[in-house]
Amino acid sequence: MSSRNHDERAVSFAVPDEADDWLADEAARRGESRDEICRRLVTAAAAAATEDDPTPTAESTDSAVATHDGTGPETGGESDD
Predict the structure, then answer these.
(1) Quick one: pLDDT at residue 46?
(2) CA-to-CA distance for 81 and 74, rounded, in angstroms?
């Protein structure tokens, strides 16, 4: 068994220029590092891929939209509906 902690595993990969530009912009917008953005995206993809029921619920869909556009109860923002 490996004595290495799961949090210490590193992955390195190249991304296309357009994805790299988006990643840099997103990291700057969120005040995070590119590594943090990649870590969060891969972790979310792994969680979504291993869910027992991959059908999105209204709650998870609302949460994803609120996270994306800044509206919703989590941010205290209001939509323009």
Answers:
(1) 93
(2) 17
- Paired tokens of 4: 């290495």
- Quote the tokens at residue 19: 């994805």
Task: Please report, for the chain, the start and end positions of each structural domain, with discontinuous segments joined by +.
Answer: 16-47
Tell me the one-letter amino acid at 2: S
Instruction: Give the pLDDT confidence of 59-76 residue by residue, as tens digits.
Output: 665 555 555 555 544 445
Nearest Cα to Cα of residue 37 among 47, 24, 21: 24
Smallest CA-to-CA distance from 11 within 44, 33, 32, 42 is with 42
Specify the DSSP element, H or E, that contains 37: helix 34-50
The percent of residues above 70 in pLDDT, for the chain, comes to 54
Residue 66 in tokens = 């609120």
Q: Could you tell me what percent of the chain has a pLDDT over 90?
A: 44
